[in-house]
Amino acid sequence: MYWLDVYRAHLKVAIATMLQYRFAVLIWAVWGFVGPLISLAVWSAATAAQGGQIASASGAQFSRSDFAAYFLVFMIVSHLTMSWEAFEFAWRVRDGQLSPRLLKPIHPIHLDASYNIGYKLITSAMLLPVWGLLFFLLAPTPPRSWQQFLLGIPALALAAVIRYVFQYSLAVIAFWTTRVEAINQLYFTLDAFLAGRIAPIALLPGWLASVAALAPFRSMGAFPVELFLGQVPPDQVLPGFALQVFWLIVALTLLRVLWAAGIRQYSAVGA
Amino acid sequence: MSEQPHIVVDQLRKVYRVHEREAGAAASVRSLFRRRYREVEAVRGISFRVMPGEIVGFLGPNGAGKTTTLKMLSGLLFPTSGEARVLGFVPWHRNPGYLRQLSYVLGNRSQLVWDIPAMDSFLVNQAVYQIPEKQFRETLDELIALLDLEPLLKKPVRGLSLGERMKCELAASLLHRPSVLFLDEPTLGVDVTMQGRIRQFVAEHNRRHGATVLLTSHYMADVTALCRRVIVINKGQLLYDGDLTTLSDRIAPFKLVTLDLESPEEAAHAEKYGTVVERNGAKVTLRLPRSETAGVVARLLTDLPVTDLTVSDPPIEEVIEQIFHGRTLDAGEGLPHVLA
User: Fold this and answer.
1) In angstroms, how far is CA A227 from the centroid of its own chain?
2) Scanning every residue of chain A, which has its alpha carbon at the shortest distance from the alpha carbon of B17?
3) Dist. CA B9–CA B92, nearest whole Å
4) What phi and psi, each to the nearest 5 degrees, are found at residue B106?
5) DSSP secondary-structure letter at B266?
6) Which of 3.40.50.300, 3.90.1300.10, 3.40.50.920, 2.60.40.1840 would CATH assign to domain B7-248?
7) Is the ipTM of this complex over 0.90?
8) Would you call B94 and A8 a contact, using CB atoms and an 8 Å cutoff?
9) Averaged pLDDT of chain B
């Protein structure tokens, strides 16, 4: 009940704040279309050049409609799991704005998480018609299994939490160096390949696909997308969830350790 | 005397490690390979106690270590060594039970959300501090009345003036009725009228709720209006801890004697008796060593046609100024080294 009240109060503030900057929020949200649509355009062209089908190393075939389904669902999953903590947190440490938050009797992550949720609620409402229009225009392949589609929902929630906690752990590095951009850049580059943003993981070269299968990025991206599309082999569903839980525990442990050490480190004069 | 102190500070010390380099490109390249650090001892083993309900002025020039001490006491900084307990908690363990009873108002930092009305931030605090609805309304009404907040509550914080924002900041900090309140420059940049309002408010709040207050301010008026006791620190060391009134006896070993004489010519004669601080027509103010004041006043009354005479301590502002700058008001008298 306490946490419900805390999140409800923070969420109201977050939504009110974002509504003050409707236009900027919309621009940010629309920016989320760019990556998946470029990937889709590239793969559509490649598919046409290959005679309408692209085969993966395992023999799976991808048509233009399959790519449309994959990247459209990825666009939504990506939007609902996104996090930008590393930038904001570093700025707050540098600027001393973190101190008032550290004086509150709750961890600052709750306020930040409320903003994250608030942002997604508002922008999803704005983007829903656009998503609908894109589905209509691009005629993607429908899901192969509705059971897997439903399992996609908890996988999406887990993906959002894992990504958020990993991003927050990266953000906390700002206690040591306020220039976390370089580390963040590395994270985003790895994420682009290993989460399945640039290509479905099945189409990655063999060795990269093996890395991607185990690295945390698939748990935060491609796994829920593949579930929504019904593309996960039935015997891989449970291991997929187990891997998500494993990475969630890793992320939480990492955050806990980094936070405890970082807060001791935090000693900016005048902060 | 079973009452326990709210704040116990014992040999608290904080050393910052600061990266240093010369200006210029060559120096910045050199610093890539060999970083030079300097240790800055911001707080050098200070100790004091504050009893429940006390309002204590924490004085010192910029860089004296006041804010560093308050940050350690509020759990924002880990000390290098030493101990402190506030309400029985070690502050830097950051126990939520402690943070729930504490407020730290930083004059130059805001806890209010910038883009929306202050009332929304108050409601967030209600949830975070678990303030029951009835108590929340009572406290809010009280704060609205004392600080005249009504017209401000619905304006976005970014549209408020500095003084208005500080009033909302104070209200946000007091909604949960903290037992310990740290005020760091609460009147910074605020006009004189608003300074007075804030002072009155802090006094009234302390009277009603008995919160223990530790206050730093550059405005002596804040301190003289609110604090009977002051702690003076400079360069991280405690110089004085005691009554504000006796501070001047200890630090300024002289008195001011103001004489009204019959004519300006007579006033010129008064110069022989002490150092002239001010002369205006037939009125003259002399500075006299404390020990000689009685004798000199007797001679003045005998030798000159005095129509009025007052003896006073130097203004507290001057006394503090003297500590801050380590200089004396009178040429012959040096500043005592450690007064505590």
Assistant:
1) 15
2) A267
3) 13
4) -100, 120
5) H
6) 3.40.50.300
7) no
8) no
9) 85
